[in-house]
């Protein structure tokens, strides 16, 4: 579970969790892979543990700070993490009576604890004393509001102002550690750490009546009662103690003058322990003697009275002593020589401490039924392997105080995993993990897990479970609990469901919503109260809530808040510019419908806000006209007014491309808009579809009038001449059709100077009247031009020896009874082409668009012929999708090849060119025996 202290240390100092000193080397190896780079740090670490004095302390911390990229600084705070949490909790109440006093932290390192205390008591004047120059530099950069002093406490007189409080937290044991038992007697404590002598440095530093706070930290050799006795012996008053067990603080009030313990001492400088005189090793003790020493916790003597190569019971006792001293690798080696079942059990503990979890797992699973430490270590194994559910169960059932730390870590990781699942949207898995912790014990549920469980339950609609979690949070004073009870009462899963809640239901949960807002400005509660006031017509109150909801909310709830805010402002008569601005913000977080955006664009335009109108209208244009099928004229008129006729036409043309069967009125509107851009590709496509729609509606006179009007505007427009010629062919006015084809031939030959196009138009004319002598003259002129061009370019003459008959059949292969279905085209084209194609050896069934509509009978007849057909051609510009799509899909299912003519097939020429391209597919199908 993540406390504020841990969150602060993780963000500022990269501390991910607590670190045992026994795992320092393995953690260092994870961060620095190179043994040569680790070696100086490990050397300094061993000197530090051995009690190498101030220089060893300075060297160790300097080595750590020399590797900023690996963030080794955080390892120091990780080893002190539980004590930092304890200090951060207990110190602010102890400092309450100082007023605006001056406080000194001795051995502040880089200032992690100072940062926490500075947040809790910014009114105090903070000072820090640190002997490592690199740490002082970092501390000054991080906490410029703290006065930093470089030096060692008690080493030499320091030029410091007099303090109202001095904090000696986890510092005085440093430099005097060595091989210590867990607890020292009072006299041994004073002698080992030179406690009394070093406290004499407080004279002149701590004002009389000032507060001294001593904390021993994670080091061995503790004795809180001994600390109190020494302080009383020095003359301190009001000596007291806060905390129990490993975690304690001893406090005292500074006397006018400290009582010297050794009056003959001329200095209070540190005196390091003298080097021990080498003594001959004692004889190896009997197992009974080692048992006595082990029970007395004199582990150093056990090691001194046994050898490394001992076996049997002595090796077991030596291994236990090494294990108690956290020398796990040596303990494992000693226990391996014991050859006893209990030694093998303890070896499994060593493997756990050495993080060899897979090796320890089978034995600890077999021993877990014994409970106690076996479950504790099995839980640590599961924790190391990432099996969080199993770890939680074992650590909880262990029932040991030392399991609490690992239980906290497992709960933190379970919470982190649940948070990750919730971010991925897997609410069921997140809920399952919270429910598992609750099944173990409801008391294990932290605030974070309760919030996650509430959110997951609401997301899944599990109202009873959500109410249970919300009630727990509500009892803990959490705003999320009050909001959760409100959402459960409304039966909504989140802010997105509030819009459909009836007014009476909102009134019923109003007390919970008010409570949630009072405890913390909860965005969803603010939104719900704003919605309630808005529906009640209390718009000024609604504005206050909705403005806060828009400020605190996220995502769609923020958009809904802005939407309600805009409506409330409009009801109160705010300027339309401000109202539209809130609508714009709302749309950015929760997309409006196209109709709403268009209505806003109209309002903005009416108010003269053309910039906003264009912004709303741009989103409408991006969505297209599909939402305005009933009457898109209003949209197009507004687009034409604001953006110009080209944008209006382009919007309509894009919409028509996605519409299979648009109404004639819409095509007429598109044609009207396209007349200013008649040369564009979009305009030509619209004109073609409009013509086809006119023919389908039987308005042939309307189609003719349209084409004549287009031709009057642009007499050289080949596309219009083609359409007009085909129109006359369709209506049987062959003389007029011939006249239009001749005009097209003259434009292509004399105006465009396109010999290939002229030859194709001439083919259409020859098909209409192959004996016309004027056409023969045109052919001779084309042949002469082709001969001259071929001679000029040095290429073969494509028209050499061409005759009217050969020109008609040019490029068309000889067929041998292949069967072709044709759908589309007009009746005149079919009546002329079918005899011609049958003369070429092709069997044809032609369903033209004039005589056949998209009826079931026609489609059934086409389907019945598809099974025997070798191919099918669809003249796309002369047939609707309601006829072409069913037969095309059926042909594809049967494996019959289909050819859709691209664009409009221009008379005979276009159809014959398409047939020549499609012929290979017909031959393949026929050869396969289709």
Could you write a compact summary of the structure shown?
This protein is of the alpha/beta class and 930 residues long. α29 (555-571) runs antiparallel to α30 (576-589).
Task: Note down, in words, how this protein is organized.
The structure is a single chain. The protein has 930 residues and is of the alpha/beta class. 61% of the residues lie in helices and 7% in strands. It is built from 46 helices and eleven strands. The chain has a seven-stranded mixed β-sheet with strand order 3-2-1-4-5-7-6, with helices on both faces. A hairpin with a 2-residue loop joins strand 6 and strand 7 (247-253). The longest helix has 21 residues, at 403-423. The chain starts with a helix and ends with a helix. Residues 262-279 have low confidence and may be disordered.
């Amino acid at each position: 579970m993540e406390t504020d202290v841990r969150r602060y240390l993780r963000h500022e100092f990269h501390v991910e969790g607590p670190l045992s000193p026994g795992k320092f080397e393995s953690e260092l190896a994870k961060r620095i892979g190179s043994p040569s780079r680790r070696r100086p740090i490990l050397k300094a670490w061993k000197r530090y543990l051995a009690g190498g004095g101030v220089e060893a302390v300075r060297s160790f911390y300097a080595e750590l700070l020399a590797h900023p990229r690996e963030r080794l600084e955080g390892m120091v705070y990780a080893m002190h993490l539980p004590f930092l949490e304890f200090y951060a909790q207990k110190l602010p109440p102890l400092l309450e009576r100082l007023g605006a006093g001056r406080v000194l932290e001795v051995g502040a390192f880089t200032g992690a604890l100072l940062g926490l205390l500075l947040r809790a008591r910014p009114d105090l004047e903070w000072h820090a004393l640190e002997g490592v120059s690199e740490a002082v530099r970092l501390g000054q950069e991080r906490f410029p509001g703290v006065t930093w002093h470089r030096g060692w406490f008690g080493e030499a007189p320091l030029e410091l102002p007099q303090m109202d409080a001095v904090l000696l937290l986890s510092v005085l044991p440093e430099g005097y550690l060595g091989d210590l038992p867990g607890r020292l007697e009072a006299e041994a404590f004073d002698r080992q750490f030179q406690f009394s002598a070093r406290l004499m440095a407080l004279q002149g530093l701590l004002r009389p009546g000032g507060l001294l706070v001593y904390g021993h930290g994670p080091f061995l050799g503790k004795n809180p009662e001994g600390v109190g006795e020494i302080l009383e012996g020095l003359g301190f008053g009001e000596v007291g103690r806060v905390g129990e067990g490993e975690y304690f603080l001893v406090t005292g009030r500074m006397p006018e003058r400290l009582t010297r313990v050794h009056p003959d001492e001329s200095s209070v400088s540190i005196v390091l322990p003298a080097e021990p005189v080498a003594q001959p090793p004692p004889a190896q003790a009997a197992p009974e003697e080692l048992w006595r020493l082990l029970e007395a916790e004199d582990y150093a003597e056990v090691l001194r009275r046994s050898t490394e190569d001992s076996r049997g019971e002595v090796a077991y006792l030596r291994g236990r002593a090494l294990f108690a001293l956290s020398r796990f690798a040596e303990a494992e080696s000693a226990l391996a020589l014991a050859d006893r079942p209990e030694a093998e059990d303890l070896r499994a503990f060593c493997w756990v401490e050495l993080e060899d979890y897979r090796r320890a797992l089978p034995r600890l699973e077999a021993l877990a039924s014994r409970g106690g430490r076996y479950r504790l270590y099995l839980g640590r194994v599961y924790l190391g392997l990432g099996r969080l559910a199993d770890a939680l169960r074992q650590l909880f059932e262990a029932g040991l105080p030392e399991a609490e730390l690992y239980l906290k870590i497992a709960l933190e990781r379970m919470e982190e995993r649940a948070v990750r699942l919730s971010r991925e949207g897997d609410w069921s898995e997140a809920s399952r993990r919270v429910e598992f912790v609750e099944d173990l014990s409801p008391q294990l549920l932290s605030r974070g897990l309760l919030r996650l469980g509430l959110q997951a339950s609401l997301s899944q609609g599990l109202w009873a479970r959500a109410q249970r979690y919300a009630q727990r949070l509500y009892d803990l004073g959490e705003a999320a609990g009050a909001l959760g009870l409100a959402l459960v009462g409304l039966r909504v899963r989140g802010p997105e469901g509030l819009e459909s809640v009836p007014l009476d239901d909102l009134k019923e949960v109003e007390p919970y919503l008010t409570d949630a807002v009072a405890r913390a400005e909860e965005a969803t509660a603010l939104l719900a109260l704003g919605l309630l006031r808005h529906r009640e017509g209390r718009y000024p109150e609604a504005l206050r809530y909705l403005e806060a909801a828009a400020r605190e909310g996220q995502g769609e709830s923020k958009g809904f808040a802005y939407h309600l805010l805009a409506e409330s402002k409009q009801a109160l008569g705010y300027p339309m510019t401000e109202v539209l601005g809130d609508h714009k913000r709302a749309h950015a977080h929760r997309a409006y419908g196209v109709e709403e955006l268009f209505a806003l664009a109209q309002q903005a335009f009416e108010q003269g806000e053309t910039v906003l109108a264009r912004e709303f209208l741009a989103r409408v244009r991006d969505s297209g006209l599909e939402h305005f099928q009933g009457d898109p004229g209003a949209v197009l008129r507004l687009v034409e007014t604001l953006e110009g006729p080209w944008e209006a036409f382009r919007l309509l043309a894009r919409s028509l491309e996605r519409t299979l069967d648009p109404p004639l009125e819409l095509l007429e509107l598109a044609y009207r808009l396209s007349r200013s851009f008649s040369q564009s590709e979009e305009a030509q496509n619209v004109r073609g579809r409009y013509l086809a729609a006119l023919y389908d509606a039987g308005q042939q006179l309307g189609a003719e009038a349209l084409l004549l009007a287009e031709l009057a505007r642009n007499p050289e427009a080949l596309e219009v001449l083609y359409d007009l010629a085909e129109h006359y062919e369709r209506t049987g006015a062959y003389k007029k059709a011939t006249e239009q084809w001749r005009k097209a031939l003259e434009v292509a030959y004399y105006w465009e100077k396109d010999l290939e196009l002229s030859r194709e138009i001439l083919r259409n004319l020859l098909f209409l009247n192959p004996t016309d002598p004027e056409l023969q003259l045109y052919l001779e002129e084309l042949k002469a031009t082709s001969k001259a061009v071929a001679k000029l370019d040095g290429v073969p003459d494509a028209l050499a020896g061409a005759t009217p008959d050969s020109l008609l059949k040019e490029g068309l292969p000889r067929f041998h009874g292949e069967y072709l279905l044709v759908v589309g085209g007009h009746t005149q084209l079919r009546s002329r082409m079918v005899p011609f194609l049958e003369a070429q050896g092709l069997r044809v069934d032609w369903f033209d668009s004039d005589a056949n509509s998209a009826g079931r009978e026609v489609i059934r007849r086409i389907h019945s012929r598809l099974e025997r057909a070798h191919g099918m051609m669809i003249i796309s510009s002369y047939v609707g999708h309601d006829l072409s799509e069913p037969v095309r899909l059926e042909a594809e299912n049967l494996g019959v090849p289909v050819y859709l003519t691209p664009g409009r097939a221009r008379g005979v020429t276009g159809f014959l060119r398409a047939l020549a391209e499609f012929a290979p597919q017909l031959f393949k199908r026929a050869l396969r025996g289709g």
